Amino acid sequence: MLHESLWQRNQDLADQFLVHPFVHGLGDGTLDRDVFRRYVAQDAFFLRAFAKAYALAMAKCDDFPHVQEFHDLIAGVLSELTLHADYSASLDINLHDVEPLPATSTYTNFLISVAWHDSLAEIVAAMVPCLRLYAYIGMALKPSLRPGNPYQGWIETYSSDEFLQLCSKLETLLDQIGSDVASVHNAYRYALQCELDFFSAPLADRS
Amino acid sequence: MSLQEIQACSLVVAAGGRWRDGTQAEFLNAIRDGTLPQEAFQRWLVQDYYFVKGLTTFVAITIAKTPRPSQKILIAGLVALDAELDWFEQHAQQQSLDLTTAMHPICKRYVDYLVASAYTQPFEVLLAMLYGVEASYTSGWSALDAAGPYAEFIHRWSNELFVDYVGELLKTCNRHPHHSRQTQFNEVLRHECNFWRMTWEG
User: Fold this and answer.
1) Residue B105 CB coordination number (10 Å)
2) Has this prediction a pTM greater than 0.90?
3) Which residue ranges form the domains of chain B, and what is each CATH number?
4) pLDDT band for position A207 (50/70/90)?
5) Cβ of B164: how many Cβ atoms within 10 Å?
6) Is the CB of residue A196 less than 8 Å away from at least one CB of chain B?
7) How many CB pairs under 8 A join A and B?
8) What CATH class has A2-204?
C-alpha cells in the first residue's frame, strides 16, 4: 500500500513528534495554556486552507465516487473547526482575525499552491500527513491519559474512531489515485516537515 | 523612467526599512568586494534558476487574469523569462551544476507564496507583487559597477532595458491600484531578504 510505504519511509520525521515538547506537554497536561491558545488560533487558520484544498481536490476528480469521499472529508474539517470554536469560547481566543505565524504561512502557501497547481495525487499526498500524524499522536497519548488532563478533549478527538476513519478514507484515496513517484513522495515529506515546524512555532512565539 | 523614480515610488516609500532589507545583501557586497566564495555563487545560480521557473508560472497566471490593455508588458516579460531560463541553463552547464537537485526551503517558501498568490489574489495585487520582485532585483544589482568577474550578471539586472521594463511595470501598477497591494508588496520584500540571506549563509 502506497500510504503505508510513505509513512514508513518518513518514519524519521514522524519519530520526532513523539519526543516533541508540544506533544509531550499535551500528553502529561503540562503544556502552557498560552502556547495551546496560540496553537488553536493558528490551527483554525490552517484548517480553513485545508478545507479549501479538499474543495480544489474535489474539483479535480474525474471519478465521481471520489467526489463523495472528498465531501465527507470536508465535513470532517468543518466538524474539527467546530471543536476549535468551542476552544475559542473556553480559552477566550478570537479565531476570526488570526495573523498567521511564518510556519503557518509556509504550510498554507504550500498547500494552496499544490491544490491549485498540481495533480490530484500530489494534493492528497500533501494532505494525508496532517491526518495520519494527528491520529498517530492521539493514539500514542491516549493510553497514558490521566483524569484532569486539560488536553483530554484534544487527545480523545484525534484518537477517536471518527477521526481514524477520516484518516483511513484519505489514505485509501491516496492508494487509489497516487503512485509511487518522486513528486508524491516529496509532497508527503514536505507536509510532514511543515507539521513539525507548525508544532514548534507556538512554543517559540511569545506574542 | 529612471531607477531613482522607481526607488521613489509610493510602494517603495511605504515599505520603509523592508525595502532596504530586500535590496541590500551580504552576497552583493561580497561581489562588489571581490570576496564572494564560489560555493555561494553556485548556490545562488541554482536557486535563482528554480526561482525564475516559479516566477514564470506566476507571470503566466497573472497574464491570464490581467485585462488586455495591460497584458503587453507582462507578455514581453514572460518571453524574457524564457530567455533567462535558457541563460541560466547554459551557465549551469558551463559550471557543471546539477539543476535537478532539491529546491532550498527558503526558495520553496518564496515560490509557494508566489504560486498560491497567483491563483488567489486579484490581478492588481499580483502586478504590485511582480513589480516588487523586479524592482528590488534591479535595485540590488544596480548598486554594483558592472565590472570584474561577475560583470555579465550585474549587467543583466542593471542595464537600461531592464530598468525600462521595471518602469513600465510601475506605470501598469499605477493604473490598477488596490487597497491590499502594499501588504503583498511588503511580503515580497520579506521573501527577497530571506532569499539573499540564503544565498550567503546556505
Assistant:
1) 15
2) yes
3) 3-201 (1.20.910.10)
4) low
5) 12
6) no
7) 29
8) mainly alpha
